[in-house]
Amino acid sequence: MAATLGGYKELTQSVSKQLNTLRTDLPDVMKGFGDLARAATRDGALSKKTKELIALSLGVAVRCDACIGFHVQALVGLGTTKAELEEALAMAVYMGGGPSLMYSANALAAFDEFSAGVE
């Protein structure tokens, strides 16, 4: 797994760099995706934090390390507790079985990495 070799901070930075290339080469597509992301994640009937927990659970279920990195980073920024993260991961495991359990461990590693030094 790429994330466990260099860490989730390194993974998200690397993916972001590559996405910058797509922003230059495919500006309309990337703007559209960014607009969709902002609209889908803004506070509404569900809070932004709840929506990010859902997104993380989906990232775990589809086994996407970069998704895990970006959504955990956002969740740490939103003040998510480890207990909240673990409950969301429990739902991912419930719905996704053993493979989701393995990626839940990755999500916990990402949480520890992005939480380091955050008060």
From TrEMBL:
<keyword id="KW-0575">Peroxidase</keyword>
<dbReference type="InterPro" id="IPR003779">
    <property type="entry name" value="CMD-like"/>
</dbReference>
<protein>
    <submittedName>
        <fullName>Alkylhydroperoxidase AhpD family core domain-containing protein</fullName>
    </submittedName>
</protein>
<dbReference type="GO" id="GO:0051920">
    <property type="term" value="F:peroxiredoxin activity"/>
</dbReference>
<feature type="domain" description="Carboxymuconolactone decarboxylase-like">
    <location>
        <begin position="27"/>
        <end position="109"/>
    </location>
</feature>
<keyword id="KW-0560">Oxidoreductase</keyword>
<dbReference type="Pfam" id="PF02627">
    <property type="entry name" value="CMD"/>
</dbReference>
<dbReference type="InterPro" id="IPR004675">
    <property type="entry name" value="AhpD_core"/>
</dbReference>
<dbReference type="InterPro" id="IPR029032">
    <property type="entry name" value="AhpD-like"/>
</dbReference>
